[in-house]
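Query structure, 316 tokens:
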């Protein structure tokens, strides 16, 4: 979980570690100090030192890795269910919903909602905070996500994902107009050398860079942007967003990888505003624990559909 904070003037004179511990519920001073030693804190201007005396106005970022709460709490949260059976559930996740609990997001997650509706959901490794989780979507990415209902189903599905027996199709609205109707990116992906919030295309084997491949098919061209069907072969963090930015066609309204933090958050006259990056997990095809293969499609959400002509559908 990434926290981006501005130090208030009234915090002037306080130690950086003490102020962060007080400003972030669930973070202790010792945790903050450990994260600083691991390079997960930055301060602008200046250096991220635990004992640094604040003056007010500094921009501070702190990345807090996921930690295990004792258990995820069941909650009565509405879900758009595409499919359910004794082995698994397939859900159309809305943009803005975090998949599973983490520091700062212990409630309101997809896992909380799943436990509220299917309280017998189990995890293959006994985890009480990620029951049923097989794969993830970024919080602001909408669309198809699958969760297992039993430990055996979770183990089966996790193996299918690891062995790349899963076909994923995403819809992205991206800046610019590519010259060709088919694109591919094979750039290996690892952590950005200077910004721990981001991933970047880097030489394979450099640092934590791992192979990654995505292909793209143009579905619709508009003035200044393009609708693309994205086909990730691998499953790296932020893969589609990183590869599109590397190709010069960043996902619209993506504040992390796009060139502008605003366009088109502020809509032109007659157009809706995008309040999140324009990426949707469109279809998901995978082997079912009971045998055979199943495929599911999540309808294009209203904020993206309003910008597209009718009839847009995944390619064969």
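Result returned for the query:
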């Amino acid at each position: 979980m990434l926290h981006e904070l501005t130090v208030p003037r009234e915090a002037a004179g306080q130690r950086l570690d003490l102020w962060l511990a007080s400003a972030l519920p669930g973070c202790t001073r010792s945790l903050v100090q450990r994260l600083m030693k691991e390079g997960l804190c930055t301060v602008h201007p200046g250096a991220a030192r635990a004992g640094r005396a604040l003056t007010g106005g500094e921009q501070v970022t702190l990345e807090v890795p996921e930690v295990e709460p004792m258990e995820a709490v069941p909650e009565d949260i509405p879900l758009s269910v595409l499919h359910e059976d004794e082995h698994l559930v397939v859900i159309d996740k809305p943009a803005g919903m975090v998949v599973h609990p983490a520091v700062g997001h212990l409630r309101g997650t997809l896992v909380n909602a799943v436990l509220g509706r299917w309280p017998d959901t189990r995890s293959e490794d006994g985890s009480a905070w990620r029951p049923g989780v097989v794969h993830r979507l970024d919080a602001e990415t909408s669309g198809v996500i699958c969760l297992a209902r039993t430990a055996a189903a979770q183990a089966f599905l996790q193996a299918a994902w690891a062995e790349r027996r899963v076909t994923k199709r995403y819809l992205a609205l991206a800046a610019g107009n590519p010259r060709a109707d088919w694109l591919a990116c094979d750039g290996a992906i690892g952590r950005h050398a200077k910004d721990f919030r981001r991933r970047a295309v880097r030489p394979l084997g450099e640092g934590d860079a791992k192979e990654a491949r995505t292909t793209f098919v143009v579905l619709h061209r508009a003035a200044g942007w393009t609708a693309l069907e994205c086909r990730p072969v691998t499953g790296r963090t932020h893969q589609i967003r990183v590869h599109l930015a590397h190709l010069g066609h960043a996902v619209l309204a993506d504040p992390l990888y796009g060139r502008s933090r605003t366009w088109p958050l502020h809509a032109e006259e007659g157009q809706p505003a995008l309040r999140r990056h324009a990426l949707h997990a469109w279809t998901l095809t995978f082997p079912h624990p009971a045998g055979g293969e199943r495929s599911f499609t999540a309808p294009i959400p209203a904020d993206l559909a309003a910008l597209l002509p009718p009839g847009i559908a995944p390619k064969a």
